[in-house]
């Protein structure tokens, strides 16, 4: 079985090397782990640092297209590279690569098709109050729309079964967090949250600004919820 961990990255030369080195390469004798970096038009040394840190694959956007576009590319490349499970983790060193085995376990056990690392079920260090409130608001909105309780709808650490990757649709380039979950759960994929330990970044800077986030994300949520989706016949990762 192949697990591909992919990192969307834009100007993350200070953090991405450590993230890649911390990714567990041995999870089980029958599981091969590989690392893919999706470079979203970086103008720094992100690609060189990632290669030296041990990334197996690099896919580059020549221009910065947005986080949603980078995640979409990551899912597509995982499929092309033959992944049975895809794991997405931010390249900013805020999320714990050591917990990737915890994240994929519900998929391996056929308890879920799509998992998210939950900061609010685990621990959070250093998150600013306005980001925390924004997270609460958007997560509550997702919970209402899906009629199922979600604790951390904006997590930057997620895992997908092969079928979930094949069926996932991200309808805008700016971001992915809400529309991806709305899309997959509406199609019948089973979501499970896994508690993780979270530490706010100490290098670089976030390119997500709250006003721009509202401007792009709210219309995308409306668009996603107005789109008809067909529920899928779900197969387990072992049935691939």
TrEMBL record:
Pfam families: Glycos_transf_2. InterPro entries: Glyco_trans_2-like (IPR001173), Glycosyltransferase_2 (IPR050256), Nucleotide-diphossugar_trans (IPR029044). It comes from the Bacteria. The keyword Transferase applies. Residues 5-167 form the Glycosyltransferase 2-like domain. GO terms for molecular function: transferase activity. Keywords: Transferase. PANTHER family: RFBJ PROTEIN (PTHR48090:SF7), UNDECAPRENYL-PHOSPHATE 4-DEOXY-4-FORMAMIDO-L-ARABINOSE TRANSFERASE-RELATED (PTHR48090). This is Glycosyltransferase involved in cell wall biosynthesis. It comes from Anoxybacillus mongoliensis.
